Each structure stands twice: as C-alpha cells, then as structure tokens.
Amino acid sequence: MSGDLGLPPARSRRELAERRSSQPRKRARRVRALTPAALPAAPLRRNAVRRVLRKLMTVGAMAGAAALLVSTSLPASAFLPVSSGSSASATTASLSAAVPAEAPAVQNMRVDAAAAAAAPTRDAYTVVSLVQQIATKYAAAARSSAYTNDPNGTIQWPFPVPVPITYGFGPRSVPGCGFCSTFHEGVDFTPGSGVAIQAIADGVVSKVEFDHGGLGNNVTIDHNINGQKVQSIYGHMLTGSVRVVVGQMVKVTDEVGQVGSTGASTGAHLHLEIHLNNTPVDPFAWLKANAN
To answer: Is 0.85 topped by the overall pTM?
Structure first.
C-alpha cells in the first residue's frame, strides 16, 4: 500500500496508520442511472400522446394532398357507378339523355308595322349660295338679261350674276325727290340690302368716305386698264360693311362692302360710277364693252 502512495516504507503499523489518517479521504460518488421506471408516469403518457398526434397529422396531410390531386385530375364522371358490361360510350350516352336537348332561345327584335311606315319629319332646310340666291330672285327681271358676267374675267360686273338695274346713266326726272340729281352719273343695281359688292378689276383703293354727302358710305378704286386710268366708285353702302382701306391693293371680285341705303338714297341699292380721266361715263355701256 505504501508503494502505491509514493511514500517510504513504513517502519511500523502505527506509522502507517498515522500516514493514512493524514491523507484526505476520497469519497467515490455513485451515480445512480435513472431508469424509465424511476421517471413519473404522467410525463411519459404525454410524450406518447404527442408522438401519436404528430404521426396522425403527417398521415392526414398526405391524405389531403392525395385527395386534392385526385379531385383536380379526374373528371366528375369517373366516380359515377357503371354497371358491368357497359362501356364509357354508354355512360356518356346516358348522361346526354339525362340533360334535355333544348335549343337556346335566340334574341330577336320586332318592329311595329306602323313605326316602320311612319317617315321621320325633317326641316325643309337647304344650303344655297349667295350667287344662287341672287340668280333665283332676279332671274325674271327685265333688265337683268341685258348682260352676262364671266366669273373668270379680269374685268367683271359688281355682282357675280346679273341683277336688276333701276336707273341708268344720263338725265332723269324723279318726282317727289328734291335731293335727287337730274343727271344720273352712274347705274343703280338693286340686288337687295346686305348683298356683297365686288371690285370690278384689280386696283388700289384711293378714297374711303363714311356718310359723306349724297353717296353716303362710298369707296373709290383706281385701275390701270389698257394703259388708261379708270376709277370705279361704289356708293350708298351699308354702314359698317366697308371691307377696304385707303392704299389697299385689291383683286377683281374682292369684297368692297355691302349694298345699303346711306346718303341721298330712297332704298337699298348700289350706285356704281365709272370715270375715265376724271370724267364720268356710262358704267353699263363701259362694262358691256370691257367685261370679259
């Protein structure tokens, strides 16, 4: 024993005993292994129940997934009972016979005969150009057939179609009109109030007068025709209708103004004058000879 402790050999038992008493005693601890029998019974039962529930949940989830797969991949007719000896075609025929083969109703529209026969009421509205209006209104006028107008000419009459002429150039007598001249220096056209007046040829506006003297609202245009100075004067125009200003260059058929009754006038008309070298000439005769 002394050899095991690494001490010198004891001389006597008493010394050996003293040595043993001086050494610390090591107490071996005995570990008792817990056996299932030593555990409480209640926790064991709970653990067993949990394991069973886990297994049941796993099995249920797998069964649900399988049922979902079958329901989405197989037709509904696959679960119908089929008698022995019958085929799939017989099953289909029986299903078709069970459903009534009624054709779907087709939509249609019926129109009452009275409604179809009734014609819609429409306004008697038509669009007529100014030229057509003038031509229709004055087609039967006695003086309007005395001349024609070429809408493509370089010299034209003051209106696109012939209109009535009430007074011509020269001496005249107007009973009951103290302000009317006894010598008429122009020609009076009467297409109606508000009708547009066109320039008879290309030129430059040299005078514009408003409510001035006997001619009322009037415009003078200077022309150069065949090397000769020609002036055309348009009188008695409607107030506010003048479309040109002094110095403006105009083309044949450009609108100068509208027919009115300003100045010394007894009714709506255009008083047209033609001056050659500042001398009045008969506008009717000059236009008949030069309009083209």
So the answer is: no
Radius of gyration of the chain (CA): 64
pLDDT of residue 2: 46
10-residue block means of pLDDT along the chain (292 residues)? 52 71 60 52 75 84 81 66 54 56 69 62 62 54 64 95 85 54 80 96 96 89 95 96 97 97 90 93 93 86
Reported as half-sphere exposure (CB side, CA atoms, 13 A), residue 84 has a value of 0
Residues in the chain, how many?
A: 292
* Residue for token pair 């100075």: 229
Quote the tokens at residue 123. 């306004």
Which residue, among 269, 266, 273, 267, has the nearest Cα to 257 in the 3D structure?
269
Residue 226, Ramachandran bin (φ over 0: left; ψ between -120 and 50: alpha; else beta): left
Q: Which residues pair with 269 in a beta bridge?
A: 260
